[in-house]
Amino acid sequence: MKLKMQRNKGKVLVLGSGGMGRWMARHLQADYNVWMTDINKKVVTEIGKPLSKKFVENPSYNNYDLVISAVNLSSAVDIIKELKAAKYAGTVIDMSSIKQKVNAEMAGLAAISVSVHPLFGPGAKSIIGKTVLLVPVKDRETEAKISSLIFSGAKIVEIGEAAHDDLVTHNIQLIQILSLISSRLMVHDRDLMGTSSRMMQYVEAASLYNSSKLVGEILNLNQASAGLFAEIRGILNELEHGNIMINDNNNKELYDKLYDAMEKGCI
Question: Are residues 97 and 195 in the same domain?
Answer without folding.
Answer: no
